[in-house]
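seq:
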Amino acid sequence: MYLTKEEELILNGAYGYALQKAMEILVALGEIYGADRLIPIKSAQIAGVSYKNIGEAGIEFLKDLSDAGAKVSVYSTLNPAGYGDEEFMEKQMKILEIYKMMGIETTSTCTPYYGANVPKFGDHLAWSESSAVVYVNSIIGARTNREGGPSSLAAAIVGKTPNYGFHIEENRKASIIVEVQAKMENFADYSFLGYYLGKMLKNDVPYFEGLKPEKVDFLKELGASMAATGSIALYHVEGETPEYMNAIEDKLEKIQIGDKELDEVKERFNAEWEEIDAILIGCPHASILEIKEIAELLKTRGRPLKIPLVITASRVVRDLAHALGYLDVIERYNGRILVDTCMIVSPIELWYNGIATNSGKASFYLSSSGLNVKLDNTEKLIMEAP
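struct:
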């Protein structure tokens, strides 16, 4: 991999330990994937935030970099933090403080594109959260690989990332066509579709025919579910996403997905309400339109939920929900909006036995933690819950 003179000096330690360590990570990654050079990035979104995920070893790694004077050189935000008891939160706050010392915005969200970290078409990024990666690649048309926590942090410090994968035009072409014959009527249908296809396609670049999503949130959930059950980081939807017109160059295999395949997923996550302790919405973090819908459904329901409703969102969206009056409605009906956190990177299995959700991504991780899961549409969750 070609390095400029300045990059060679960084690698050799001329600019200090922190930059050297970051450059070592990027060079190793570039050599593994056959990158020809490093390219500048516009922003970073960094994983490795929850204490549940990184533990003491992760804290030591971050502390070593921070003590060596590591500072990010591009605008950078964090993935959601964990939430737990007093001991857990003490460790969690320590992690956030270290990141803050590096110059990173500690707005911990998996939807940074709802706030200040909004890329534009063609921007090169170093983002790590799987649902955010597939969103900005597919729906915005920015360019990022699915980075790990250390590589996204290293890229943020250096301001560059190796030029491989989805940074290169030819790698962004579709590799398979998916003809959707199923009835796609609501948010949960896109969760079912994404869950099924992620497991089936692994790391393909699907091109969808027959999808006419009413809301961008539906596509957000489709990508998040595919990224959770598989490794899909880019997809195209005919007539909807920005690169679809140039996404197909050669004749590709075509598969059909009907109601039968979606029903398979629904039947997998069909816990009874008696097994459910809470409703979780906001995986990925909820948009203001999702929160508006929930508030309106609660008012239509007309009586408080007997089990708690937990909505996770970014600070920006929560503050907007408060200003518009949606938060007051949600709290009146036994709901709350949590910010800067995510239940699937928290020790949720210590608090609940079963969760109802509209998210395929959440269903995948919650069931992996041994919880009973009910996956259904938002309207059914709110209107049919006890």
